[in-house]
Amino acid sequence: MISSMTAFARQEHRDDLGGLVWELRSVNHRYLEVMVRLPEEFRAIEPTVREMVAKKLGRGKVDCSLRFEAGSGTTAGMKVNTRLAGQLLEAAKEIGQLQHEAVPPRTIDIMRWPGVLESEKQDFTPLQKQAQELLAASLDSLIENRKREGARLGELIQARCSSLQEQVVMVRTRMPSILSGIRERLRARLEELSGELDEGRLEQEMTILCQRLDVDEEMDRLDAHLQEVQQVLQRKEPVGRRLDFLMQELNREANTLSSKANDSETTKIAVEMKVLIEQMREQVQNIE
Length: 288
Hints:
Layout: E1 7-15, E2 18-27, E3 32-37, H1 46-56, E4 60-70, E5 78-80, H2 82-98, H3 107-112, E6 117-119, H4 125-194, H5 199-213, H6 216-232, H7 240-260, H8 264-284
Parallel strand pairs: 3-4
Antiparallel strand pairs: 1-2, 2-4, 5-6
Helix pairs in contact: 1-4, 4-5, 4-6, 4-8, 6-7, 7-8
């Protein structure tokens, strides 16, 4: 089953430790490019995040964004640096004795002294583990969404393949009447030029002209490429690059047909072929 490179996934988890929200967005790209946005508390897991994405996805520009909202279980407490506070009190006492004053420092003044009150460091290891587990679920969701979008793209490409096949049949059907018309026009022209028709010369000119206008090989190659496109769409692996190559080959044959076209209807058919191929090529750009 083919996968699209364009998709979105969102996963959320909340408990006493806080709320985690992963948002993953992917768009088409020649290779895999991962953009990671993490809160400061989760910077340590960035290499793991990149590794997890690389294991799951082959191509695409992927934007991974994590949002964190602290819960009651992550509220950092305050602790008193009793050693520093004691030193401050002792220093205040000595200074008071020098000034012959015994006014102790106010508690609020001691608390304001840099370093007396310290924030307890929060251990974010459990939250980082939760973030990785939630990322795994987010990647699974993204992959499912890419597969659903890929299935839709596959249906669109299949429909255009069928339309293109119809155009090939139309060209094959028209070729005998086109060659017959050319024969009659050439016969009339030779009669005008020489007065008498030289059958040998007519056949010689017809042979040269038919070789120049023969599109059987182009039609055969178009058929073969269209069959391969449909086979590739059934593969359970990344097929975007292969399909892109086949679009180039289809376009090459359509251009050759256009250059060999000898009547307006065949020219219109060749133009319609190129339109269908371009529509497929645009869809293929989104396939992994």
